[in-house]
Each structure stands twice: as C-alpha cells, then as structure tokens.
Amino acid sequence: MGETTKMTPAARRILDTASELFYSKGIHAVGVETIASEAGVTKKTLYDRFGSKDQLIVAYLEERDQKWRKHLFSCMDEVPDDQPMDKILRIFDALENWMSTRNKRGCAFVNALAELSEETHPGRKVIIEEKKWLKELFASLLRQLQLENPDPIAEQLFILHEGLMVTYSLDIYERGTAGAKETAHMLIQSADYKKEEA
Q1: How far apart are CA 70 and CA 126, in angstroms?
Q2: Among residues of the chain, what percentage have pLDDT more than 90?
Q3: Smallest Cα–Cα separation from 69: which of 84, 99, 102, 91?
Q4: Which domains does the chain have, with CATH numbers?
Q5: Strand partners, 147
Q6: Tens-place pLDDT, residues 15-59
Q7: 137-168 burial, b for 16+ CB within 10 Å, e for fewer?
Q8: What is the mean pLDDT of residues 187-196?
Q9: pTM, two decimal places
C-alpha cells in the first residue's frame, strides 16, 4: 500500500474504519462489506485501494505499529539520553498511558496473531517484527548500562512488558506498572556489569 500518510481520502476512511473494527470486534468478525459500508465507500473502492482484506489487515497492523512507536518515543524523549535506566522504566509508563487511553482490549498484535492462524499470512510478519523490535529496544538500552550479557535481561524485560499488557486488559492487577517497574529495576540491578579497565 505504501506510506499511510499518502492515502486518498477514501483509503484513509477505509483504514480508519477497519482499524477501529478490527481492534474492537476482531479481524474475523468483520467483513469487507461492513468496513466498506461504515466507511461510506463501495467494496470495489476498498479492493481498488488495498487489494484484499489481508492487505488491509497488514496496513492496519503497520499503522498501529507506527503509532505505538511514535507514542513510545515521545514518552522516552522526556528522559535525557544519558539515563538509559530511566528510559527503560519509562517504556512501562508509556505502555500504561497507551492502554488506559484507547486500548482497553489489550495488545492488538497479540490479538491479531491469535486470529491469523496461517503461518504464511503477511500480517504475522508485521507482528513478529514489532515484537522483535521492542525486545531489541530493551537490549540496546541495556547495552548502554554496560551489562556483561544484556540479551537475557532484555528477554525478561520484554516478557514483563507483555505480561503487564495482558493483566492490564483483564483489570486484575493492583500495582500494575509500579510493580513491573520495580521488577525491571531488580532484574537489571542483579545483572553482571562489565568491569572497568584499570
């Protein structure tokens, strides 16, 4: 489809409508007829702009990824670059803000992955790459802290992040983000750090 910022007005309406319906009702529960009707276009226009429902799903996931990264970096940019520990903890704050404002049904990528059972579906690649990116973001910040082996800690932080997202959507935690940040801090503090050369 290309850059979502260069869409025609009709394509923009289609994607906005599909994004809302896919997230709130589920990908399989929403057909192209419903999307076209609610977007005020014909099915032909939808197919002309996106080619297929599968490609519309890809566009939905790609744009959601872009929005999440923009939100995350906006929150992280409030922390000076020379404070990687605080930047790591800010990721959890950004998640809480993201979930509390407009994303009550949990992670759109995990939800979509559960529905896209075919391993060859193009949407699965978008989801997997997004998760790999987040794990690598943790790893890159940990490397700034001079950890001996940051990858296992990055994986633990990633799992903690994903778990927080699930429990938030279920509304079953009491301390949530505060508890996750304390756990993240303990994981990092317990890690081995590189010894400074004499």
Answers
A1: 16
A2: 77
A3: 91
A4: 1-51 (1.10.10.60), 59-189 (1.10.357.10)
A5: 193
A6: 999 999 999 999 999 999 999 999 999 999 999 999 999 999 999
A7: bbbebbeebebeebeebbebbbebbbebbeeb
A8: 79
A9: 0.89
